[in-house]
Amino acid sequence: MPNLSSAKKRMRVSERQRRENYAVRSRVRRHRRRFQDALNGQDKTMMQQAFSEYCSILDKAAKRNVLKKNTAVRYKSRAANKLRAVT
Fold this sequence. Notes:
mainly alpha, about 90 residues, Methane Monooxygenase Hydroxylase, Chain G, domain 1
């Protein structure tokens, strides 16, 4: 356990950030699964909508530094390639 008050505060802050980051990463995974389900469903409008939502979530995660920018770009590129292959 920390002794200094600044260390105690740092512990509280890092725990809060960890929870927020976990929530954002969970949201990314949830939208990735929705996108995969839409690809399996073969409904083009649903695919496009799921893709745009997934890209939006990735951009927000990269903006908040939960994901690195290049990681988000790589995920979007892979999703776009899957979408292109299906349509």
